[in-house]
Amino acid sequence: MKKSLFALLACFISFLSHSQVTEETILNDPDFKILEATAIAFYTSEAHINYVNISEEFFDKVGESFIIRLNQGAIEPENFKNWIEKNLEKTNFNSLEEALSAHKQFYNSFLIKRDGQKVVFSLLSKLSEKYGTDIDNADISSSDIVMDTFTKYTLNKIYDVLVEKNF
Amino acid sequence: MKIGLLKIWIKLDFTSLSEAQLKWQPISNLLEINYNNNQELFEFIRNSNPEVSIYYFEKYIIKNTTEEDLCTKQLKQCEANALTALINEVAYSAGGPEALIVYRIAHFFFNKSIQTCANNFEACVANS
Predict the structure, then answer these.
(1) Is residue A15 part of a domain?
(2) Is 0.90 surpassed by the pTM of this model?
(3) Interface contact A68-B91, CB threshold 8 A
(4) How far is A14 from chain B (nearest CA, A)?
(5) Are B34 and B95 in contact (CB under 8 A)?
(6) Is residue A100 part of a domain?
(7) What is the 3 state secondary structure string of chain B?
(8) Per-residue pLDDT at B5
(9) What is the ipTM, given to two decimal places?
């Protein structure tokens, strides 16, 4: 009984402390500042911009027959090779060699982008957990003040930088 | 069968409704299973209504229509790029530990991109 009461009290205190978290709290958190600097550096980096340009070109050429398979691991090199060998005529590539070369370029830029993204995601996850988000059980409807603050301030800032760069 | 839907099938090169449904299903499943909540642009996926799904598929992904003016073609291309980028990001991370973060960030950029497409379209029409 005592244990239950203690657990309840701990939950209540945790709830109270998290319920007082405001945007300002997040914005002043040194970890958020690190996250923001890392995210801006990543999303405005040459590697990321390069990836976006290459992927647009690649998807434009490979076409919708491929795009609708993206959730089936279609971009993995072996899967792409198998698919393109049978579906070259559905794409805008002129030859198998051209398609494989374009995919290689796309996939390499994707891997570079993915590594940079991982660092941002990791910082975001840690900060969300710090302010009480249950990462493992969250879904799209879950409230997440860190994510909301990140979107409102950092992502908008990033977008403005990208627009300035004429991207 | 509605004539409008038939026209879309022809444009999309689908031979039947079931084929159209089958081709759409991977994306539909992915988003429906993982993100079952109010994303207004993806209402169609929640419903899994093939007619509506195909409409959006046609609107955002299919670009090679012949009868449209330059501004509309550019708009379609721009929207297609935005949707493809979203699907690519979400598809790769689906089911993984970072899926939700990826989805939220990808969706932010998708909304911004769609807005930029609309702005560019307006500017194109004004200048043409």
Answers:
(1) no
(2) no
(3) no
(4) 24
(5) yes
(6) yes
(7) CCHHHHHHHHHHCCCCHHHHHHHHHHHHHHHHHHCCCCCHHHHHHHHCCHHHHHHHHHHHCCCCCCCCCHHHHHHHHHHHHHHHHHHHHHHHHCCCCCHHHHHHHHHHHHHHHHHHHHHHHHHHHHHC
(8) 31
(9) 0.80
How many residue pairs bridge chain A and chain B with CB atoms within 8 Å of each other?
79
Domain count of the fold of chain A: 1
- Residue B107: pLDDT band (50, 70, 90) is confident
Would residue A14 count as lying in a domain? no
Inspect the interface and report whether the beta carbons of B29 and A64 lie closer than 8 Å: no
Residue A131 lies in a domain: yes
Range of the domain at A65: 29-164
**CA distance, residue B19 to nearest chain A CA (Å):** 12
- Name which of B87, B100, B108 is nearest A67 (Cβ-Cβ): B87
CB atoms within 10 A of CB A122: 15
* C-alpha distances out from residue B111 to A48, A158, B34, B104, B106, Å: 19, 14, 19, 11, 9
pLDDT given for residue A139 in this prediction: 61
- Using a CB–CB cut-off of 8 Å, the residues of A that contact B are 52, 55-56, 59-60, 64, 67-72, 75, 114, 117-118, 121, 124-125, 135-136, 138-142, 147, 151, 155, 159
